[in-house]
Design goal:
Elements: H1 3-9, H2 50-62, E1 67-71, H3 74-82, E2 90-94, H4 99-112, E3 116-120, H5 125-131, E4 136-142, H6 154-163, E5 167-171, H7 176-179, E6 189-193, E7 207-211, H8 214-227, H9 233-243, H10 246-266, E8 272-274, H11 284-290, E9 297-301, H12 305-314, E10 319-320, E11 330-332, E12 353-357, H13 363-374
Parallel strand pairs: 2-3, 2-4, 4-5, 5-6, 10-11
Antiparallel strand pairs: 1-7, 6-7, 8-9, 9-12, 11-12
Length: about 375
């Protein structure tokens, strides 16, 4: 089946008792057993829940993976994956990695778990090779990156990781499974904040890990249960609801983002635009090869930090808010908001940077809003 069909049907057969066409919200913490150890596949809701099972099957199908595991947030998914590591292990991340990932590594795992990490420009494959050492266990990749929208050659980075017996993990939150499938490019695992495009309506928080290797999936399933950072059934239902329209939403996000980026490129108040769909973007040709389209995120640089603040304050259709990937358009200042945790570090983002999550409103209305905000 094609992507759009699997998004609606994978793991989502009609409910057998009454024929409900939507997966029920199994709002229960435990399950009755006929006798000791005799149950119908579920014994306790931290371990498993039928609504969560449906979500995991659907996302695994969309990412072309063998299995998926759902979590209470994107950071819960990341933290659970890093539980696979041991003291002294080393991680390579991108030099504009999501601020929450940096915070987890720099301010939690370095001290509490003895995990080491280095940040490098993952678009520079020679730099990636030089950063890998004997202790390296993970190369953590984003493409497009957050917030500078660099494009990383996933297949090449996976090859570098595997040459050193390390895992290549791709945060595919910006890309979504509709636009790219990192597992097919050689990645070992894919991570999502399902809060974003998968949910798509800014009304749920969640995370996902998808993988192909049965041994890796078994270890992650054990950690999912043992660590316990699992989503509730209503959260799973809401992400399932979002998946059904992911394809048509992403088409609208991409269409709007392309028009917004082109407008910004021509606006005299904008110093620089970061969008892989623009022909002069350094990763444009690579994105065209490994993605179906160029995504719904756009970043740009204003003339000054004060000007960036002013633009964020003046928009009316774009809401000033953190997060991304919902049907409504959002604007934010990464340096003071989503990436404040990297302030003062080598990963500090430009103070003039503004990030846009382009929603599915009419592009002309979005452009008019930005035009008056930039005036």
């Amino acid at each position: 089946m094609r992507f759009e069909t699997r998004a609606i049907h994978a793991g989502q057969d009609p409910e057998p008792t009454y024929g409900a066409v939507n997966v029920p919200i199994y709002q229960t913490s435990t399950y009755a057993q006929a006798a000791v150890g005799e149950h119908k596949g579920y014994d306790y809701a931290r371990t498993a829940n039928p609504t969560r099972t449906a979500l995991q099957e659907a996302i695994a199908s969309l990412e072309e993976g063998r299995g998926a595991l759902a979590f209470a947030s994107g950071m819960a998914a990341e933290a659970t994956f890093f539980h696979l590591l041991s003291p002294g292990d080393h991680v390579v991340v991108g030099d504009d990695v999501y601020g929450g990932t940096y915070r987890l590594l720099a301010r939690v795992l370095t001290d509490s778990a003895g995990i080491q990490f280095d940040a490098v420009d993952l678009t520079d494959l020679d730099a990636v090779r030089k950063s890998v050492r004997e202790e390296t266990k993970v190369i953590w990749t984003e493409s497009p990156t957050n917030p500078l929208l660099k494009i990383v050659d996933i297949a090449a980075v996976a090859e570098i990781a595997h040459a050193s017996s390390a895992w290549c993990v791709v945060d595919n939150t910006f890309g979504t499974p509709y636009l790219q499938q990192p597992l097919a490019l050689g990645a070992d695992a894919v991570v999502h904040s399902s809060t974003k495009y998968l949910g798509g309506h800014s009304d749920v928080v969640g995370g996902v890990i998808v993988a192909n290797d049965p041994g890796l999936l078994d270890r992650l399933a054990f950690l999912q249960n043992a660590v316990g950072a699992v989503p509730g059934p209503l959260d799973c239902f809401l992400v399932l609801r979002g998946l059904k329209t992911l394809a048509v939403r992403m088409q609208a996000h991409c269409r709007g983002a392309a028009q917004v980026a082109e407008f910004l490129r021509r606006n005299a108040a904008v110093e620089r635009v970061h969008y892989p769909g623009l022909a002069d973007h350094p990763g444009h040709m690579l994105a065209a090869r490994q993605m179906r389209d160029f995504g719904g995120m756009v970043s740009f640089e204003a003339a000054s930090e004060e000007r960036a603040f002013e633009v964020c304050r003046r928009t009316k259709v774009f809401f000033l808010a953190e997060s991304l990937g919902g049907v409504e358009s959002l604007i934010e200042h990464p340096g003071r908001m989503t990436h404040a945790s990297v302030a003062g570090s080598p990963l500090e983002v430009p103070s003039t940077l503004v990030r846009l999550s382009v929603g599915i409103e009419h592009p002309d209305d979005l452009i008019e809003d930005l035009e008056q905000a930039l005036a």
